[in-house]
What we know:
By secondary structure, the protein is mainly beta. Helix content is 15%, strand content 40%. It is built from five helices and 15 strands. It has helices at residues 2-13, 56-61, 67-77, 82-86, 88-91; strands at residues 17-18, 33-37, 39-45, 48-54, 96-99, 108-118, 124-131, 137-143, 148-155, 158-164, 179-186, 189-194, 197-203, 234-238, 244-254. The strands form two sheets. Strands 1, 3, 4, 6, 11, 12, 13 and 15 form an eight-stranded antiparallel beta sheet that branches. A seven-stranded antiparallel beta sheet has the order 2-5-14-7-8-9-10, with helices on one face. A hairpin with a 4-residue loop joins strand 8 and strand 9. The protein is globular, with a radius of gyration of 18 Å.
Amino acid sequence: MKAIIFLAAAIASAADVKVDLKGEQVGKSPVIFEPIVGTWVVGQDGGEKVIVLDGRPWVASKDNPTKLLFQTARKLYGTSNEELMDNAKQFAYYPVAVLKSVDNFSNGTISMKFKTVGGEADRCSGILFNVKPNGDWLAVRYNDTENNVALWEFHNGIRRNIKFSDREKPFMLDRSAWHELKMTVGGASFKAWLDGALALEYTLGSEPVARRGPPNPDLFPANNPVLRPPVAGKVGLWSKTDSTSYFKDYVVSPKP
């Protein structure tokens, strides 16, 4: 009997989390996602509700620490987390919103659809994951100005690249159409797809590869918890600076 109960609990815990925006109010901040940095509102596209990141206000406020970051630290972690506050100025360059219904994603799949509408400095849309209480995170994103997919880490207030998709095979996407970004994590294995095409693979815990001189010490997993498996943290949406992007069909499919 205990084995049956345990199995049922495992199956329940592995149920897909599909973000349904039908109950959201257009023009208001989303209820399902907790905005941390940036201007996130519920909008409409083609008659359906979507999450909109409006990058225009960021331009006017980019030199000021965001008040939203300070306020939401307590909501997410129950304290005024000093480490998160110390990282605020750098953190403010990356608009992010955390999914409230998933406390800890470790293994499985996250997918979402995006439409990168505009931005002068950047046009980025991505999936945020492995978000730690001190503000460290991982993110996989598509950049419409570089036409590539990349895996980034954020640690000690600084963002650094882990891996880019093949530079010789750019992803030239139609900016007026919806596209799917999907990632999977299985232990140390990480993969990302764009519109069904495998974009990059990475093994968490790998030693960094020297490019131009010695790698930064923070890129060594021994010095950086966010780079060490297993993945364990909150998830959500990610972007950069003045990007304006639409998001929908966000699905988290955990595996025990």
